[in-house]
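Re: weekly structure request thread

Next one in the queue (92 aa):
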Amino acid sequence: MSLTHIQSFVAVAEECHVGRAARRLHLTQPPLSRHILALEDELGAPLFERTGRGMRLLPAGEAFLVHARRILAEVDAAVHTVRGVAGNRTSG
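Done, posted below.
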């Protein structure tokens, strides 16, 4: 499972639409759809219901979204921490 797959999942979950999520991530739809399919395959469960108008989270997707957002927040915090430490070392 890659960070890119998690970011893709969160974008689709929040937009409820692959096209809008692809634009948000500066991707085209085919690679974004592949990210979602790969993630679902790895997790062994469908995360979305594909509808005529977009995507709707299934219960497994709703459960994963909580963790996915937490993972992204932790990665963001780690990046900020490292940049802060690196900034302190180069200026001190």
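The longest strand covers residues 48-51. DSSP finds four helices and two strands in the chain.
Next request, please.
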